Amino acid sequence: MPTLRTNDYQLFMIIIDDKYISDEVIEEQFVCNLGACKGACCVAGDCGAPLDKEEVKKLKKIYPKIKSYLRPDGIAEIEKTGTHTTDDEYGYVTPIVNKGICAYAHIDEYGVVGCAIERAYNDGVVDYKKPISCHLYPIRVTKYESFEALNYDRWDICKPACKNGKSLRVPVYRFLKDALVRKYGEEFYQVLDKIARKQYKAE
Question: DSSP string covering the chain, please?
């Protein structure tokens, strides 16, 4: 069962079991605004979305089912490089096309970039929503030998989401409830939410 261990609040973090959570995950506010950013996070950056070992296996398995959802250039990149590739900093990552857009991205009629895997998931074609690193953003998880660190990541392209979150008064962790439950379970989220409401006065 998750437990809270305090540090006189001088380190500005929450510790639930072996998860070290930055207080910014509670104190900052964030709600994606796709109308403003057009899904830029699927296009910008130096590499694709980070993947864990199980996701590498999953992508290889589901690729035939999601292929029809992908753009032609995405298919070409995947069939050239594989369903995943590697990065010096992040390890396993999704392939990207021409050092830009994710190979698994799609573009809708309004020019908004989204995840083709998620479209297939919403259609009931696969049981995998999308890479957990995408689902958890703007939280970035760094794994160490004995613990995981959950930090709030700042990115200029997400300024509309920050503005939207402040307007709606939605903390980062609450915006990411589904992703946090998917990653760590309902009990973890409920403990985090209790701490946020009691000690950080999150609304």
Answer: ---B---TT-S-EEEETTEEEETHHHHSB----HHHHTTGGGT-SSS--B--HHHHHHHHHHHHHHGGGS-HHHHHHHHHH-S-EEETTTEEE--BSTTSSBTTEEE-TTS-EEEHHHHHHHTTS-S--S-HHHHHTTEEEEE-SS-EEEEEPP-GGGHHHHHHHHHHT-BHHHHTHHHHHHHH-HHHHHHHHHHHHHHS---
